[in-house]
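Tutorial sheet, problem 5. The two components below are modelled jointly, 227 residues in total.
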Amino acid sequence: DSGVTQTPKHLITATGQRVTLRCSPRSGDLSVYWYQQSLDQGLQFLIQYYNGEERAKGNILERFSAQQFPDLHSELNLSSLELGDSALYFCASSMSSYNEQFFGPGTRLTVL
Amino acid sequence: QKEVEQDPGPLSVPEGAIVSLNCTYSNSAFQYFMWYRQYSRKGPELLMYTYSSGNKEDGRFTAQVDKSSKYISLFIRDSQPSDSATYLCATIISYSGGGADGLTFGKGTHLIIQP
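Model answer (structure tokens):
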């Protein structure tokens, strides 16, 4: 158990809908990262927050957004969902940008 | 050219063998290197973290980094069936002004340890 928690474990929804994924980092970690894992693209970095502020952006679509709250938990919002958004979404946390990143169990999103 | 290249396998070896997993990278700005193990559809588990050329050992695992040739390796000694998983190499760029991006991953190598 990495200490990073994610909810829900599974999410099934329809195209065009909006969903919110939630992540709680390990105790003491200030950085939260979101990653998407699909069969064809592998693990891809989406976005990083550090102590409530956006720190870095990767291959995140404009339909996706995230935020980190004062208690350091983070939410990833996915809107106008398409079939191709079906993937595993992982959250990771670390003390700072250069420290080891620890991953949560993931949320499996299925868009029908 | 992908930034981090990794042979997807599968790589099948008998129990007890020494396993060698490898990645190459193209960007010399990558400075920190990690190996993760991922069981099917589970969260990646950090195995090794290193930031310098040379070897780092932890139990049955040894990570090796050669920055001059942009080559990283993970060796597993006395391999066990429970080591069967996908192994992902990852790296991260550090910027002179501080801060870093997220991890850049290889596609992963599927390892099978035969009992």
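Marking note: The radius of gyration of chain A is 13 Å. Full credit if you identified this.
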